[in-house]
Here is the input.
Amino acid sequence: MSQPDSTIVRIPPPETPGPLARTAGRHEGWGFALACRAAAWSSCATLLVLLLVIAFQAWGWLDWQFLTSFDSRKPADAGILAGLWGSAWMLILIVLFSVPVGVGAAVYLEEYARDTWLTRFIQLNLSNLAGVPSIVYGILGLTLFVRMFGLFDPHGPLEQWTGARWTGITLWTQSDGTAVQIPLPFGRTVISGALTLTLLVLPVVIIASQEAVRAVPQLLRHASLALGATRWQTVSRQVLPCALPGILTGVILSLSRAIGETAPLVMIGAMTFVYFTPGGITRPTQLFTDPAGVVQAPFDTFTVMPIQIFNWVRQSKPDFQHVAAAGILVLLAVLLTMNGVAIYLRYRYQKHLQW
Amino acid sequence: MSTASSSTADPVPSPLARRFTLLAFQERCIETGLFLCAALSILTTLGILYVLVTEVVYDPFGAPPDPVVQREDGSIDWSRRHKVGPFFQEVSLREFFGSAQWTPQYSRKHFGVLPLLVGTFLVALIGAAVGLPVGLLTAVYLAEYASPRVRGWVKPILEILAGVPTVVYGYFGLAFLTPYVLKPVFQKWLGWHVDGFNALSAGIVVGIMIIPVISSLSEDALRAVPRSLREAGYALGATKYDVSVRIVIPAAFSGIVAAFLLALARAIGETMAVTIAGGQSSELTFNPLRATQSMTSFIVNISLGDTPTGSIEYKSLYAVALCLFVVTLVMNIISQLVMRRYREVYQ
Here is the structure.
């Protein structure tokens, strides 16, 4: 019954203590936990201080007049109307450009692409693009969209080849004689800005959409394919509806990044002192009553909220600091609303969709 | 036998056979369209490279530059040349990296990028000194200590902090940190002069800005450490501190390093906060209390002015952008290599 002694292995005590030989004293562990806790809450405190400072600076300056007037050289008369409409137009155009392309690319990479060197290269390239500083995109936009490589310059290459001067494509002429036209090159217009920011947010939109598509269980695809659906039918009717909340969250978060983005738009030369809105549209109802204005708006010069804020910060009159703070509050309100919607969507999604 | 012969003669092919139908054609078209969407990202990269290289290194289609005009003392009179060639055909690499003077806007132009590099790295290092410890400790707190309820509060707040536009951080640095924090501490107590624009305030706000990046990426790395490692530690009698600091952090080390590198790249590429809070001095200085200029803020300051296309100032903007692009790209690639290594360990 009793085991022979030889099978019992006696482990000799280590000659030098291992890394865990001395466990931390009570106070050491307590101090570290406190440091971690303090670090986490210090970020929250920073956000609070930031909001309080800005609210304090903006106190009394954020009013209806501020929201409904154009910029002015007098701080008391300055307003953010041009920036609000500029940002709204940017938002609309960026959604139109980035969502189809971004979701399309994500679907290709997740559902169609085989594991080839090209796919791996695209994937690697995406994560690199996401890390390229935004100002570099501004330089790309300046050359590609605003100047179009100087193709359309006076005495430029196109004029030398065709013998004619190209300034734009006229869509139609209105009854009062003004033409609705697409300028070539795009110049410092809403569409140049929107295309630049689309290139900037695309990698983020694609990566977020990929994660959402990947999270859809394989089961659904197999069921759909087994019922005889084609690949695209499976993607468009099963996978995308399931991935929609995840895609929306990613899209909204990257859009809120685009709306707060300043540097690339400074590069492409969004004007800083603007006394008009794109297409002359200043009321939401005009979107339905003024079709020419709606078509013209993307090809108008513009400013956006962050640019106006940057411009106010640079002014030497001290009162403009208060105007800038008021502008920041408006911008933050828009962004927090967008972020809130995204966080709420994800929260609902996590709660209700469990596979 | 009869069944076999009838099946070969059957005019209706098997439903699984490959056929060229409208539906199949449609599927091909959709797949091609989706591929083009994905390929756009490669075109973007090529576009960036093409734009930067043609303005800086070599332009195959460029118009011939205006002839060099020299002043009496032998220096080049740039103001009489409206069209110049690619940047590095006008300015030698040796001057670009060797000279300590950066004055493209003055009439006596010097193109030594060193002051901009020093400004960039000064701000980024201050940012890292603020952001790295706080971000890492936050990640440890969220991954190891915090209850789900606290996590539910802290994580959205960090996300909001990440979503605050950089122009707002710049304003915070210029209108609050410099006059109400840095000036009282450094100027009143210690007696050191603090400029209205300074690298320290810019660095601190950049540090605040990268905290969410570091904490969320490092938290992912910490969470990827298998539970068994932690439990083995506890079974050996380790305290929570031991498990966190001596087991989990070393195990997730490569992921944390990758997060640091990514955040540092973000700090180097950060533009508006540095432009607003850091000022635009092109003097070479290591003093964080003085005004500075980073590569990014130089690009913004040039583009705010009226710089004619094709002039040497305009080209210098592309040269600095290429420099910035290369630095951030290298850091991103290193970060990805490190990240890939760490993925291989636990999957």
Q: What stands out?
A: Chain A touches chain B through 93 residues (CB under 8 Å). The first helix of chain A runs from residue 26 to 58. The CA atoms of residues 294 and 328 of chain A lie 27 Å apart. The mean pLDDT of chain A is 86.
